[in-house]
């Protein structure tokens, strides 16, 4: 069970992801979480830096779908100006939303990555779906809701076990 919490790649932010390498590996789609992955949980819109990154992603021929456990207003208000499709109230790590995102992308799991800031939702769901998972550090942890804070506590317990099993290196928090 704990192995499913281990992402294939860990980076500080989406800006550190090597898009050329993903494309060379056959990746044509990104499923991404919203809050604390792309922007802080209370940021209503994309930053100019994020908008530029999304343009770079599109220029590489990689499509993006936002999959969030948040509500329709939050996810829609953020995604619509960017012209990005989205899935809200995803209930990650449940697989329904991941399947829906793959359908939107018209891709299979081997052509798609999942980017998120939470092991218990984004990484677990992505790994269960067979996606290449990328864990980013949360942008604004102080803005997180109670559900996310509970997940963070569970992640700490899981990290202890993963370290004991040699599946998570100490220097890679």
From TrEMBL:
CDD domains: HAD_BsYqeG-like (cd16416). It holds the Pfam family PGP_phosphatase. This is YqeG family HAD IIIA-type phosphatase. It comes from Paenibacillus yanchengensis.
